[in-house]
Amino acid sequence: MESSTILPLSHVSIFYHKPHGTNIGAFPCNFKRFKRSSSTITVSNCQKMHVSGFGEASPESKAAKNLHNFFTYVAVRVVTAQLESYNLEAYKELMEFLDRHSLNDGDKFCAALMRESSRHKTLAMRILEVRSAYCKKDFEWDNLQRLAKKMADESNTRLMRDYVLETSHVENENSDG
User: Fold this and answer.
1) In this structure, CATH architecture of domain 59-138
2) pLDDT digits 0-9 by tens, 29-74
3) For FRET with 72, which of 47, 54, 112, 126 sits at 20 to 30 Å CA-CA?
4) Where do the structural domains in the chain lie, given as residue ranges?
């Protein structure tokens, strides 16, 4: 029989672990060396935040797996749109296959599609081709990073503002009317 231990939140640290022999508290960086220019400070020897609970994979690896599956979804959408305009029979076959199979795991979906029939194998090969091309040439990686940062900042600000309004018993100025 397996057992697990649940620690109260006071025992769980979300801060960086302080290396032995340092006096930097919860800060993640070793501030021994830094370079000062006219208006900025560049810190060197910075360590990344440790994120536990992901097993053998990093958060970036988990995100990459989700993006990989998303690229399959995008490729299927592209291929179905193409088929709808020039090959209605293949479009219907792919749509019927989609009704019977989940797109949650892109590789599993494509493997099943390849094994369905020789016609389906051709569709699967086209999806793999589009998935690769989209990932390498069309997906806007810089835009993803910008949007993810913007969403995190806006969401954090909104959540904190809503919490302060809720707990401070201050009425919203827009509700006076």
Assistant:
1) Orthogonal Bundle (1.10)
2) 443 444 445 555 555 566 777 777 667 778 888 899 999 999 999 9
3) 54
4) 9-50, 59-138, 141-169
